[in-house]
TrEMBL record:
Name the record gives this protein: RanBP2-type domain-containing protein
GO MF terms held by the record: zinc ion binding
Alphabetized UniProt keyword annotations: Metal-binding, Zinc, Zinc-finger
Ranges of residues in domain RanBP2-type: 12-33
UniProt superkingdom: Eukaryota
Organism annotation: Fusarium beomiforme
InterPro entries: Znf_RanBP2
Length: 87
């Protein structure tokens, strides 16, 4: 994965759900699968696909994201695992 500076983004992640190719900022389509490249803050985070999926781009070329429902966790059996012991 290319290094990404917080002030200058030099690569965008492909918007296709089955591709994880990094593309140059000036590219309009992915170099690997030819899908649209969606620009945005998700280019800074490789885990974006866990919370949303790109549905394409609007008339201005901005990404349209379909957010997933958060995973439900059952915490009824959660317990602290730390034990204190004095010698």
């Amino acid at each position: 994965m290319p290094s990404v500076n917080a002030t200058i983004v030099t690569y965008w992640l492909c918007a296709a759900s089955n591709c994880s190719h990094w593309n140059p900022v000036k590219a309009n389509t992915c170099e690997t699968c030819k899908a649209a490249v969606c620009e945005g803050a998700f280019g800074l985070n490789s885990d974006y696909d866990k919370i949303a999926e790109c549905d394409g781009a609007d008339a201005y070329g901005r990404a349209i994201w379909a957010l997933h429902d958060p995973d439900v966790m059952d915490l009824t059996e959660a317990r602290a695992s730390t034990r204190y012991r004095r010698d």
